[in-house]
Design a protein that fits this description.
single chain, about 65% helix
C-alpha cells in the first residue's frame, strides 16, 4: 500500500477581516442620563429626620444581626460553644426587642 501525501496550502487572511466574523455588533447606547427620570444624588441624600431615624434603626438592626452571627461563628471555630450559645441567646432576645422598639417608634411618629 502506498501512502499518498497531498500538499496543503495555508490560507492567509488579514486579522481585521478574520475578526469581523467573530466580533459582535456594538449596540447603540442610550444618551439619556439617569437623573432625567427624577433620581438625583442630592434628592437621595437630602432626607427628613424621620427617614434618617429609620435608616439608623435599620442599620442598627442589621448590625446586630451581622456582628452577632460573626461572633457566634468565631466562637464556634474556637470550640467555645458555651460562649457562642450565650451570644445566640442574647441575640434571640435583643433582635426582637430592637425590632419592637423600632416598630413602636415608627407607629408613634406616624400617628403622633
Amino acid at each position: 500500500m502506498k501512502w499518498m501525501r497531498r500538499e496543503e496550502k495555508i490560507e492567509v487572511i488579514e486579522f481585521a477581516q478574520f475578526m469581523k466574523k467573530y466580533t459582535p455588533e456594538k449596540k447603540k447606547k442610550m444618551n439619556v442620563p439617569v437623573y432625567s427620570f427624577g433620581f438625583t444624588w442630592e434628592g437621595f441624600m437630602h432626607m427628613s429626620p424621620e427617614m434618617a431615624g429609620a435608616y439608623i434603626g435599620l442599620t442598627t438592626i442589621g448590625g446586630i444581626a451581622i456582628v452577632g452571627t460573626m461572633a457566634i461563628n468565631w466562637f464556634l471555630s474556637r470550640n467555645e460553644s458555651e460562649t457562642a450559645e450565650k451570644i445566640g441567646n442574647c441575640i434571640s432576645i435583643l433582635f426582637p426587642a430592637t425590632m419592637l422598639v423600632v416598630l413602636i417608634m415608627f407607629v408613634g411618629r406616624l400617628f403622633g
